[in-house]
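User: Run a structure prediction on this.
Assistant: Running it now.
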Amino acid sequence: MHNLLAFLTKYYHWFIFLLLEVASGVMLFRYNSYQGSVWISSANAVVGKVYEWQAGLEQYFSLVDQNAALTHRNLVLEQQLKAYKESAADAHEDSVQSLQTMMGNLGKYSFVQAKVVSNSIDKTDNLITIDRGTEDGVEVDMGVACGTGIVGVVYMTSAHYSIVIPVLNKWSRISCAIRNKGYFGYVTWDGVNPVVAYVDDIPRHAKFKVGEWVETSGYSSIFPKGILIGKIMEISDSPDGLSYRLKINLSTDFSRLRDVCVITEKDFADRRRLHEAALDSMALQRSRN
């Protein structure tokens, strides 16, 4: 208390000066119409600028939410379009039965929206962290995609976060097919260019050309059929000469990856338990032999 009184005693003339300045300002702008109008105009300009900044921030954050929603919607619509095309191509099947089959296949999958919280593209074993985990229905071995194509496979999970092995990882190996051709192989990455991957094991009798699309085959239990992976850039022979090796331009830009969807399936847990039981049985038989 003593220090406060000493401070006020030492600088009291400054406080009196500020008080008189405020009083004179109030009197000037209140009792003079011209100065008052100038004050109101200036105040309105400042307040307008503040509101403009506030609106810009609100618009930015709303665009983030809209982008996430559009990523989810784009992925769903792609799968629906793929299913409609396959249904229309099935001329020998009854139209009602075809529609029921198509809707049943689409109904098997749902999508958990997530945001990328960490990512890398300059390593050979890149990993992605997303902000969804077991509490959100995400499990190990679930597929991850975005609005432009495939991303990777869930590798580890916690309650609220998950680690994804992306296509840009030397351990990644995802089943794929050439669109509308039926020939399938596996997508791998050589650890060099983050926009380029390779497709191996395409048979020598396959007929296709540069510029065609590669997509998920649907043969694995991780991804539904038809999610984009990339476009064929080059065709060459495999090292053993028994198959083709395709160089593809990835449809997903991993350097700008923000919003993704984890693909979940209703029967995922049952299928995974059955797969693990089969592996345990095979391991037991090997140990007996």
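Residues 91-105 have pLDDT under 50 and may be disordered.
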